[in-house]
Amino acid sequence: MADSELSSDATPDRESTPEPVGDAADAVLELEDVTKQYGAETAVRDVTLDVRDGELLTLLGPSGCGKTTTLRLLAGLERPSEGSISLAGDVVAGPSTYVEAEDRGVGIVFQDFALFPHLSVRENVAFGLKDADGETTEDRVDELLDLVDMPGMGDRSPDQLSGGQQQRVALARSLAPEPDILLLDEPFSNLDVRLRVEMREEVRRILKAAGVTAVSVTHDQEEALSISDRVAVMNDGRLEQVGDPEAVFEHPESRFVASFLGQAGFLSARVGDGTIDTAIGSYDRTLLKGLSDGYTGAMVDVLVRPDDLRAVPANEANADGAIVRRQYTGPSFIYHVELDNGDVVRCLHNHAEDMDVGEHVTVDLVSDHSLAWYPTQG
Ligand code: ATP
Which of 34, 35, 38 to mutate to test the pocket of ligand 1 (most atoms within 8 A of CB)? Predict the structure, then answer.
């Protein structure tokens, strides 16, 4: 096992490793109005997206939202029904153009890593370097084994490697021919939970050290937020929002994005002249981000996540509601509280703060940041 797999602090440290990525003008990959239909089924609808030089962009969304189809369109494994895809300035798929997968300069890391079981680690890594002479190949393989922190393991066979090591070899093999873009299909889904968190940090380090532009696919929001330079959230074949992880988490532009990220709950609120009134109390209306005068008198739904709220035991007469579910996660409890008006919100508590289902509580807003909101539907 490589040393970094044993690292105790596995949380990717985004603050200490700011990675400059290009702006929109540096797009390596461009999708314009891309749609993919399978008979009556539209898997991808009107997707327009650019991927910038050197960035790691993650397509994130629930099962069936079209992430894998988008990745297959980029790889050249599927042909768009409409729209065009350009790679390094050249159209590779469009109404009158189609460049086959093997001619696109695209590397792919598959979910199961797909190492050749009968080849050694060295031979696996060298697989994409068939055109290079022997010495150049050996040098490049050594360089890549160093990059993925596996020097000296070249003679092993894949079945002598841990899951994390297999992933390192798969990355090295895909990076060997210096692809214009690297595609990663659910890269951590084949690893156990502990290794998954550790390898997130390691995969990001390797991609950044290689300087490659990469597109990854996942349904795991924590993974997407922790490894990516930008996240593209998909829903029902469409792109809902594209932005850096903090922007999509803190400023979700749609109710779908808000709900998909971070156990969101919604508080119904009536907007008054200077305040908003909710089932847990009245607050200054400046609490709501960007609320215009036109909403005075209207009902809105305010986004609240578990870390924004705390439940405090109360007698029934003073309570805002009652605990209807208790989720134990080890370090913490998440209490689901049904408020008197029917809203259900979640409150995050330390594991020592043990309360029972049925207990009456007041709910306090403990966050000091402004909150996103959405006009109440229907
Ligand atoms: P998952 O996370 O479950 O892999 P996904 O977001 O990657 O889901 P896709 O695999 O891209 O979603 O599928 C998007 C939609 O297109 C789904 O409704 C799926 O059933 C449909 N689909 C995908 N491939 C085909 C195909 N070859 N033929 C018909 N329908 C397809």
Answer: 38
